Amino acid sequence: xxxxxxxxxxxxxxxxxxxxxxxxxxxxxxxxxxxxxxxxxxxxxxxxxxxxxxxxxxxxxxxxxxxxxxxxxxxxxxxxxxxxxxxxxxxxxxxxxxxxxxxxxxxxxxxxxxxxxxxxxxxxxxxxxxxxxxxxxxxxxxxxxxxxxxxxxxxxxxxxxxxxxxxxxxx
Length: 171
Known about the structure:
Elements: H1 2-18, E1 23-24, H2 25-34, H3 40-52, E2 56-61, E3 64-69, H4 71-80, H5 86-108, E4 109-117, E5 120-129, E6 132-141, H6 144-169
Antiparallel strand pairs: 1-3, 2-3, 4-5, 5-6
Helix pairs in contact: 1-3, 1-4, 1-5
């Protein structure tokens, strides 16, 4: 059992090493849980151990906990990556390829709103890629309900809106 958990820990490090941005627990666990590689409680325990050992770092952003591999984690991965089967690496690579935008979306699409006058709200919508702001816009609305809805919809649809917007602007 301990050997299996070690493989899942190394797999988690491999997954994190292949993703350029920090990811949520859900994104990280989905791969290992979807094909029954491990169970949720074992995954949580293994992730906690990776964090406490300094191989994975936690980032707290916008009420989410995001995870990324540390330099020490990369060094361990270099030493132990042979413990992961080629088929598991291929499964991880395919998962990342199929979910690349939505994985990056967790970290790089942001929204917030604030009141700036009587019945005046501003929704601030952003997309950041590899630490660089690639789009930021502010939309004004006359109610808090509208501002919340704008932010909520932005988080769900930015991956559709951004390419459409760029396409129209570059015509």
